[in-house]
Amino acid sequence: IRDRIMAGVCLTKETWRPLLVKSDGPALVRLVIHVGLVLFLATIISLRPPYWPALVILQGVTLIFLFAPLHECIHNTAFKSTWCNRLVAIACGWLLLLPPAWFRYYHLNHHRFTNDPARDPELITPKPLNRRDHLIYMTGLTTWWRQLLVLLRNAFGQNRDDFIPRKAHRRITLEAALFIAAYGIAYQIIGDAVYWSWVLPALIGQPFLRGFLLAEHLNCPNVRNMTENSRTTITNVVVRWLTWNMSFHAEHHYQPAVPFHKLPLFHQYLRPQLQVIHEGYFDLNRDHWSRLT
Fold first, then answer.
1. Beta partners for 6?
2. Which of 20, 206, 218, 276 pairs with 140 at a CA distance of 20 to 30 A?
């Protein structure tokens, strides 16, 4: 391994190699707590204690940010074990209407062509340019609708996305069909409780995820340099925990092979070169709102 010059700091192989070492422990502990919290809140909601509707909001935020372990497992960096990454990606993707086989191609092309208006899949749908469209976007309803259409198109073998290789079409079709079948089985088993513990919380939680994801590349230059086209947002320990350190987004784009639990350390090396850093998600979204017509 050659010495690598980054951020004005010489990262020798002794420094660089530990950043890339994957392990099962940190992700397993975080996943058990994260999923445990989702199940605990679902149980409390089902008992209908006083003020239980307030818990639906908390459940929504906790549930929707299972997107974070899904994202990590798509990169095969959350766990050292490949089967753990695959299994967790399937479970989280199923809960969020986001089949992981399709999402992996979508997301890796986003990494490959970050902020390229012609080739970045995340830019297929333009970001809202006025306050009305922004409010509609922030509800998350358009996101759910697009994900539902993707799921249905995939299940019926009608996927036409340019970033999906032909060899993957059969696997993506099978995955989507199995997801739909599993939704039907889940409803038969769980019944109406699925609405209060899963569907409604997911709808309520989606705006929080939209505000978080919007910060990753919003108003960043359309250049190839990952220290310029991606934003790191400095936030509190609760948000960092819930989002599996994806607030260190420029670091993640600079080297996606660094596991989530090592991103804070990587941030220390890379920070002198980061071009886009913001303090807090609330302030960032508020500033963006003020710029919209």
1. 9
2. 276
- How many other CB atoms sit within 10 Å of the CB of residue 19? 16
**CA–CA gap between residue 95 and residue 254 (Å, rounded):** 29
DSSP assignments along the chain, one per residue: ---EEETTEEE-HHHHHHHH---SHHHHHHHHHHHHHHHHHHHHHHH--TTHHHHHHHHHHHHHTTHHHHHHHHTT-S-SSHHHHHHHHHHHHHHTT--HHHHHHHHHHHHHTTT-TTT-GGGSSPPP-SHHHHHHHHHSHHHHHHHHHHHHHHHTT----TTS-GGGHHHHHHHHHHHHHHHHHHHHHHTTHHIIIIIHHHHHHHHHHHHHHHTTTTT--SSS-HHHHS-EEE--HHHHHHTTTTTBHHHHHH-TTS-GGGHHHHHHHHGGG-S-EEE-HHHHHHHHHHH--
- Residue 232 contacts residue 276 (beta carbons within 8 Å): yes
pTM (2 d.p.): 0.94
On whether the CB atoms of residues 42 and 60 are closer than 8 A, the answer is: no
Digit-coded pLDDT (tens) for 207-252: 999 999 999 999 999 899 999 999 999 999 999 999 999 999 999 9
